[in-house]
Amino acid sequence: MATAYLVQTAPSAAVPSAGDSAMSVALGAVEIGGTGIALAYLNARNPADGKAHHEIFGIPTDVAIGGGALGIGILLALFGSKYGMHFVRIGIGAFVESGIRMAFEKGVSDRDAENLKRLQPKTTGLRLVQAPMPQPAAAPSPAPVVGAATAMQKGTSQSVFQPVG
Fold it and tell me: For residue 33, is it within any domain?
């Protein structure tokens, strides 16, 4: 005679089961979505210097909150608390927001790199040589005045220009 064993697993905090009430499912969605939205707003509103996200002690805030809330939720669930699932949902929301943020930043950097490649000139097998810039022609010197040179050579103080009339 075969013996049947019944294995009961603990219900997941994030996945609703058939026995969960509609209010419990709605609360889970609000906890996960609300955490993600709040952390996305925080990252956009108060980014760290030179970064696109908020940081606490050099760690992205969404990762820190996700790890902390998930750890607290697991500890509370181990000790039989009914509030453990709320912390687990908050941790899941924070990690989801962190993944979305990282994917967004990667997409923006890839797009910018692609645009940079598109803007650079295409290279061919030919080598470009820059021709020397043409120099402007020297301005012609004014024609010498014959009378002035002879008067200066003689050392006289006679004026070159004579009054008319």
Answer: yes
